[in-house]
Amino acid sequence: MRRQLDELIRVAGSRWAVEECFQTAKQECGLDDYQVRRYPGWHRHMTLAMAAHACLTVLRARQLDTDKAETDPPSSSTSASPKSDA
């Protein structure tokens, strides 16, 4: 019973992440800008908008990683120094 309740809570909590994803896609990629006339056109529009949103998300994550790497001080690691085979 407890495991089922934990699973229900996890699924209910993940709904918000999905909702935020759709909201962002609506704002940035025009997910809600298509006036449905026929299914094939709607399907193409949704697929293209979601693909664009996925690309933007990946590019944003890479940019954030790059910015973080540029602002973080270098770590003093001994594994980065060359080893001698003597």
Account of the 3D structure:
- The protein is mainly α and 86 residues long.
- Helices cover 71% and strands 0% of the residues.
- The chain contains two helices and no strands.
- It has helices spanning 2-29, 39-71.
- Helix 1 crosses helix 2.
- The chain is flat, with a radius of gyration of 22 Å.
- The mean pLDDT is 82.
Question: Which terms summarize this structure?
Answer:
86 residues, mainly alpha, 2 helices, RNaseH-like_sf, IS701-like, SRSO17 transposase
Helix content: over 70%
SSE topology string? HH
Strand content: under 5%
Q: Kindly state the mean pLDDT as a whole number? A: 82
Class by alpha and beta content: mainly alpha
The low-pLDDT segments are: none
Total count of helical runs of at least 4 residues: 2
- Main sheet specs: none
The strand count comes to 0
N-to-C terminal Cα separation, in Å? 63 Å
Q: Over all CA atoms, what is the radius of gyration?
A: 22 Å
Coarse morphology:
flat
